Amino acid sequence: MKENKYKGRVRRWLIEIVVFVVAIFAIFTVISHFLIRPAGSELSNKDLKSALTQKRLNYVAIGDSLTEGVGDQTNQGGFIPLLSNAISEISDVNVVSQNFGVAGNTSTQIYKRMTKEKKIQSAIKKADVITITVGGNDVMKVIRTQLTNLTENSFEKPAQTYQKQLTEIFDFIRDNNPNAQVYVLGIYNPFYLNFPDITEMQDIINHWNQTTQETIAQQKQMYFVPINDLLYQGVNGSKGVTTSDGEVQTITNNALFEEDHFHPNNIGYQIMSDAVAEAYKEHHNEK
Question: Which residues form the SGNH hydrolase-type esterase domain (predicted)?
Answer without folding.
Answer: 61-271
